[in-house]
Amino acid sequence: MNLHSDLQALQDFLRAALLDPARPHQLAISGSDEALSWQQLGGAVTDWAQRYQRCQAPSGTPVVLYGHQQAEFAVAIYSCLLNNIPYIPVDCIYPQERLKEICHLASAPYYYDVASRQFVATGEVGQPLAEQDLAYIMFTSGSTGKPKGVQIGRESVWHFMQWVREDFALPEVPVLMNHAVFSFDLSLIPLLANLATGGHIVLNAKEDIAAENWLDRLKNNDVSVWVSTPSFAYQKLLSPQFNSDYLPALGVFVFIGEVLNKALVKQLRRRFPQAKILNSYGPTEATIATTVVEITDAILNSQNDLLPIGTMMPESHMEITAEGEMIIWGKNVMRGYLGLPQENAQKLLRREGETWRGYKTGDLGYQDGLLYCQGRNDSQIKLNGYRIEINEIENRLLAMSGIREAVVLPLMKAGGGVLRIAAFCVTNLAPDAIKHSLSQVVPSYMVPSQIIIQEALPLNPNGKIDRKLLDSHARSH
Hints:
It is built from 15 helices and 26 strands. By secondary structure, the chain is an alpha/beta fold.
């Protein structure tokens, strides 16, 4: 299928889904501000586009969307997709300074303040994007300290929507839980799956999640599909109500964003014996996710301590280099970083015989029937002359009976170099017992000098483990 027919197919689908929905009176979105049926959503999407047109933004310029888990935020995203307006989501938990920086980097003449439903002029001279037919630009933390804009084409979004509908074991009309901020692409799994299936997405603001009765919101909405990082689910296991008796509709778990370990899956199996648990993998640069697998009992009971990340989506394939680096080739690979030609030359590949681009992930992996991800290729450190793989220490800890979560951090000296290794563990085991067990399976120089026991590991706004906070915590000990 060529690019033009992909773009036309997406446009036809969006027009039908949003303007002529199959179930007009069914709920489409429950946000922190309001709930909308599919019929109401169609009206809101049309209204948003008309208000944006009045801004007279230059054609081909992106619009920044600024808010937090409102139904109106999803309305704006869906309207941008329908009307071929490239959008950039920024969550208002980030400071105004980041919003200004992103507006500047993208030459976006307007941002939409979701809470006040106002378009705000940024003072930027709107520059049309060099890449046409972009669906969105997702800004991630850059190694230079400045955020990097990942440009995703509309063809990639269409490809992803079809794959999620076919291969993610979703109910016919799913009710999807979203906890992730919209500036983290994990949120697009429920957002786009909702569009693809004509389902219902339940958005959860951070203050709702922090409330003691948050699970009631999932129960009252009959949430059937849970989408999160593993760390976010771990925290919810602290609630005794997080089980199939209290949440009988919850039948599918989708995990992405971090390594999924066997300890979490085993606990979920006990709490939700009938639920399907899916593990997925994919960097932002490859349109949200690129592999998926259902974690069966056979996989769970295998000798391999690592869980697989699955098989590739259609029209893509994984190359694993001699050094073990995973390279994704396919229709889902980004169009490039916004305005960063040097980075694009380093990360994006083109090759004769390959229809689509390749992306060097920086992740290490191997294939044994299914694909496995072993962590980053930049997680190797040197301590006292020894080469140490941080991922190996983490995997050894997670394989120990009684350790539910573990994060290992190298604490760096001010002038560079590693000072010491610290490990944070969620467990009832004593630090000395952990060190002793670890010394049985790794050399003594790989045993962390600090083992810090925690009730739960802190999460950042994306629902991933907050390693910066843990680093400062280890230094203060």
